[in-house]
Write a structure and sequence with these properties.
The complex is a heterodimer of chains A (113) and B (113).
Chain A (H helix, E strand, L loop, with lengths): L3 E2 L5 E4 L4 E7 L6 E7 L6 E7 L2 E5 L2 E6 L4 E6 L8 E8 L9 E2 L3 E6 L1
Parallel strand pairs in A: 2-11
Antiparallel strand pairs in A: 1-3, 3-8, 4-5, 4-9, 6-7, 7-8, 9-10, 9-11
Chain B lengths: L4 E3 L2 E4 L5 E6 L6 E7 L6 E7 L2 E4 L8 E4 L6 E5 L8 E8 L7 E2 L3 E5 L1
Parallel strand pairs in B: 2-11
Antiparallel strand pairs in B: 1-3, 3-8, 4-5, 4-9, 5-6, 7-8, 9-10, 9-11
Chain lengths: 113, 113
């Protein structure tokens, strides 16, 4: 079993839809949770970053972390065609593996006009 | 300012050959990371440097892989006796310190024939 599990999709939604992306993890030491967006043939770019449990909102994006369930989510409101990309969750414990990130396999999202 | 750059963007080589992949981090970033991303997968950690020294090389798959960062800036990932299974996108990231956000480069797409 991988430390971070993420459904690869693909996920296809109409413009304006609310998108929900999720990851589960097994390592209870993970404290820092990130969502990266990756366009085709580009490197990942950081979208959201949260520490421990709770919610964080940034514009159309909301990240949620539930450490008791080892479950994290990213919500995209009013989705746009420009949101079409692969979304990667990532996490670290910033302890013995300081700096090292553990990624999910990514969910491919298409938003059609 | 300039982001993380990687050269070459694409590299095609034959099985058994030696390759070098270069990463130029963001100026002033002390931490540098190498990840490998196979098709349809998330990035997998290989090694990271704090300054000139390898702080964690536990992700290197075997002794054919080696990385250096002699002056604490540019890094080179070296792969000896390449195998077809080494084909992947090799991503480099840098961060201000090992506790900060990682910024990724566009990657080098390595194809071993």
């Amino acid at each position: 079993q991988k430390e971070v599990e993420q459904d690869p999709g693909p996920l296809s939604v109409p413009e304006g839809a609310i998108v929900s992306l999720n990851c589960t993890y097994s390592n209870s030491a993970f404290q820092y949770f990130m969502w990266y967006r990756q366009y085709s043939r580009k490197g990942p770019e950081l979208l959201m970053y949260t520490y421990s449990s709770g919610n964080k909102e940034d514009g159309r994006f909301t990240a949620q972390v539930d450490k008791s369930s080892k479950y994290i989510s990213l919500f995209i409101r009013d989705s746009q065609p420009s949101d079409s990309a692969t979304y990667l969750c990532a996490m670290s414990d910033r302890g013995s593996t300081l700096g090292r990130l553990y990624f999910g396999r990514g969910t491919q999202l298409t938003v059609w006009p | 300012g300039a982001g993380v750059s990687q050269t070459p963007s694409n590299k095609v080589t034959e099985k058994g050959k030696y390759v070098e992949l270069r990463c130029d981090p963001i100026s002033g970033h002390t931490a540098l990371y190498w990840y490998r991303q196979s098709l349809g997968q998330g990035p997998e950690f290989l090694i990271y440097f704090q300054g000139t020294g390898a702080a964690d090389d536990s992700g290197l798959p075997n002794d054919r892989f080696f990385a250096v960062r002699p002056e604490g800036s540019v890094s080179t990932l070296k792969i000896q006796r390449t195998e077809r299974g080494d084909s992947a996108v090799y991503l480099c990231a840098s961060s201000l310190t090992e506790a900060d956000t990682q910024y990724f480069g566009p990657g080098t797409r390595l194809t071993v024939l």
